[in-house]
Amino acid sequence: MDVAQTERRVRPVVAGEEVDGSGSADVPDQTTDEVFATVATGDQTTVADAVSAASGAVPTALETAVIQRATWCEAITAGIRNRSDELTDALVREAGVPIASAREEAATAAAQFDSVADVLRSLTGPYRTWTTATEAGDNSLVAAVPLGVVQCRPSVRAPLATAALQLAPSLGAGNGVVVTAPAATPVAVSILTELVREHVPEAAVGFVPLAADAEHALTGRGGPDAVLDAAVAAGRAGVTRFQQRLGGGTTTLVFPDADLDAAAAAIADGGPSAVERRLAGTCHVLVHASIQDELVERLDGHIADWTGGDLFDETTTVAPQRDAAGADRLAYFVDDATTKGATLVRGGSADGRQFRPTVLSDVPADAALLEDRQSTPIVPVTPFTSDADALDLAAAGRPSQSVSVFTARHSLAMDVAEAVDAGSISVHGGGDVPEDRLGSLDGRRVHEALTRLTRTKRVLQ
């Protein structure tokens, strides 16, 4: 890939046209520390204008057949794949992720639109026959109509993947969309919205980068939701938020009858920069005390293969922190855990912004790292002494993005599934259940998203 780039300029888009922003921010190139992009940020007025324009485009979207929306998604899929190198380069530079991970994220974004197109093409007719005491055999039409305008809020950690996860079903359902992108990582999302706008009704998609400091100054509290709240309060109602809850992290439970080689490989698979791991955050490992040392030994061997370095090197799996403060934060987590009784097995220190791959065993449940739930090159391992203890630990705290269970006892795996609050649960051993990967929207999830983004209207005939 040709990595030579000129500085990019990113601006808000309202009613299909680029507009001036209320502020400006530089996006540093994570590979050179030079300026990669200059982004014009929006404010309450910009968001309100984008919402109004997108709302006005909804009637036009309603006039399109479902099959036409499927065609949009297919064309967007092709556009993402055609510009994959450009999107990958932007992700490496602005998000600071290794190129292999960035390429996977671009492929994931294309897959989202492809999945929505497949589901839209397979939808069956909405006619229903009904009977009452006074009328028999009449038809009613149960139509799914758009909610109106959907706010899509990509994450800083995986901006392109999360933008696609939200944009594809929102547009497939016929809604207008306003993308409130983080100013820290706006470039890949701006390219995606450019691709989308080529195929949907004019003004249907707005794009407004929002800077955190500007949001706080405007509303007295941070976050893109604050700006949207202010815009809605100004008279632009009817906005639905569609965003993934990316907190919660992942949890892996390893019981004494587990295949330890398989467990260690699965925990370390892809490194901390894999798309699923970046979305899910810290992988907390819960292991029976009788096999903790054996698992940690195997896990340490896999973590030793995690490599940092040049983000454009295909073998790099560990991205540097965005700044020195990020590396200091990880060092604090290690110090906090070891002070509370954890054992440092590997790593634990930084070389500039690059934090060395780290394994901690005997990590107590009150370690600060376990509450952070961000994707890091630190793998914390906590022992348990009984099945009940494992269930209590897994169920404690905030919901998990995903849980993996390694045991041959199906009944125990089902006990874990019942006890935890998690988005997906993968069972390994005793009849494996295929893993539900976070980076994809399968048909079931597309149906769920389309249902959430429409309301039903019954028309009697």
H/I helix tally: 16
Give the number of domains. Answer: 2
Task: Provide the CATH topology of the largest domain.
Answer: Aldehyde Dehydrogenase, Chain A, domain 1
**CATH class placement of the largest domain:** Alpha Beta
* Overall body shape: globular
- CATH second-level architecture of the largest domain: 3-Layer(aba) Sandwich
Give a quick account of the main beta sheet: strands, pairing sense, barrel closure.
Answer: 7 strands, mixed
- Per DSSP E runs of 2 or more residues, the count of β-strands stands at 21
Helical amount among residues, as a percent range?
40-55%
**How is the largest sheet built, in terms of strand order?**
14-17-18-13-12-19-20
Please state roughly what percent of the residues sit in beta strands, choosing from under 5%, 5-15%, 15-25%, 25-35%, 35-45% or over 45%. Answer: 15-25%
CATH superfamily of the largest domain: Aldehyde Dehydrogenase, Chain A, domain 1
Low-confidence spans: 126-133, 214-221, 430-441, 457-461
InterPro entries: Ald_DH/histidinol_DH, Ald_DH_C, Ald_DH_N, Aldehyde_DH_dom, ALDH-related_metabolic_enz
Keywords: Oxidoreductase
GO molecular function: lactaldehyde dehydrogenase (NAD+) activity
Region (Disordered): 1-29
